[in-house]
Design a protein that fits this description.
The protein is α+β, with helices and mostly antiparallel strands. It has a single domain (3-240), classed as Endonuclease/exonuclease/phosphatase (Deoxyribonuclease I, Chain A), CATH 3.60.10. The protein has 5 helices and 12 strands. A 6-stranded mixed beta sheet has the order 3-4-2-1-12-11. Strand 6 and strand 7 (120-128) form a beta hairpin. Helix 1 (17-27) runs parallel beside helix 2 (47-55) and helix 4 runs parallel beside helix 5. The chain is globular, with a radius of gyration of 16 Å. The protein starts with a strand and ends with a strand.
Amino acid sequence: MAKVKVVSWNIWGGQHLSGILDFLSEFKPDIICLQETIQDLNGKNNTAETIARHLGYKSSYFTSTYEIDTAKYYKELEPRIVAMGNAIVSRNAIQDFKVHPLSEEKTRFLIEALIPANGEILHIFSSHLIHTHQEPSDLQEFQAKRMAEIIPKKRALLGADLNATPQSATVKVLKKTMINTDSELAPTWGVYPEGCPVCKPQAIDTRLDYLFVTKDLKFHSFKVHDSKGSDHLPISVVLEV
């Protein structure tokens, strides 16, 4: 059996990149599922590539979801229009990479990387569902149902900012086919009040981020970590492959 350390993290545009790199350099995950990753419209300054290069990892893949103005969402970054999306970074080479649309309205994608581990191929997914300020959403639930349809029933892991609480219909959809690796459901969001100008969180008191696995995978050591690198906290789990 081989141990595979996986981190999932909404990195809030990478505006506190030094804190992100400090945590990842110390924790040394094998696979990283990223949300709110950005790059310039000319393809340069890709946050996932920067992380991979800093860690000395072989592969990083990024898919743009939409364009944003950093001046509106990320006050610590140089004002400009950038592409924002999801990414997967891997210590080992990624054999294949796929992009799965989840909805045409308020477009969201599920990205998939096929990564070898101890003679097996792991299906690693990263996604970021629409933000509803923790209110019920038919569209968000629809996006979750699409994910459940797309993700295979074996050797798959989903790292995602679902923008949904554990009691939500969105999370319940995924629990029908996958296992939530955290039984304690500790909060992961609210590090900075600026993380949402509507919610204005004053404490880390909301669970939005998850690591789900298919029922055939063995796992242990789920953890919510401390970090000031983002408005979300990084989460991790160890797979036995």
